[in-house]
Amino acid sequence: MARIQVFLDTDVIISALLSQKGASFEIVNNPNIKKVISKTIEEELNEVIKRQGIKKEKTITEGFKTISLGLTKEKLLESYQELVIDEKDTHVITGAHKSGSKFLLTHNTKHYKSDEIKNRLDISVLKPGNFLQYLRSQKENK
Predict the structure, then answer these.
(1) Which tens digits make up the pLDDT trace of 87-132?
(2) Domain tally for the chain?
(3) What are the PIN domain coordinates in residue numbering (predicted)?
């Protein structure tokens, strides 16, 4: 089976660091899921880890594909702002789109206009637990 690619929001990785139970941990540690983050997500992650004093596993993002968005803040807002509730989340949907991911995994689904994102970019915005349910349903249908 081909590895399915997902773009991870910072909160999913933080959740996996804080608990070895739950969907976020399962996704981050599943070798059959190709995880993608942006350099901006990586910077956010390091900032949150430092600010909250979270013990970081050195290998938490090892094996993740990290992409550069290659756009100015103005271009990000121009291209993607109407897809998010808060413009601070524009870089997340941009990363998911630029990486070619069909899934954006986040605990903050209310920050995104999911229907518009699905219709315009063909990206499903899901919580980690819902994504795992989707994967299980795909296995059952085969």
Answers:
(1) 899 999 999 999 999 999 999 999 999 999 999 999 999 999 999 9
(2) 1
(3) 6-110
**Distances, alpha carbon 10 to alpha carbons 48, 95, 122, 141, 142, in Å:** 9, 12, 21, 31, 32
Alpha-carbon gap, residue 76 to 18, rounded angstroms: 31
Q: Which of 131, 44, 32, 25 is nearest to 90 (CA)?
A: 44
Q: What is the CATH number of the domain that holds 17?
A: 3.40.50.1010
H or E element at residue 43: helix 39-52
- Identify the domain containing residue 45 by its residue range: 4-140
Residues 96 and 104: their CA atoms lie apart, in Å, by 6
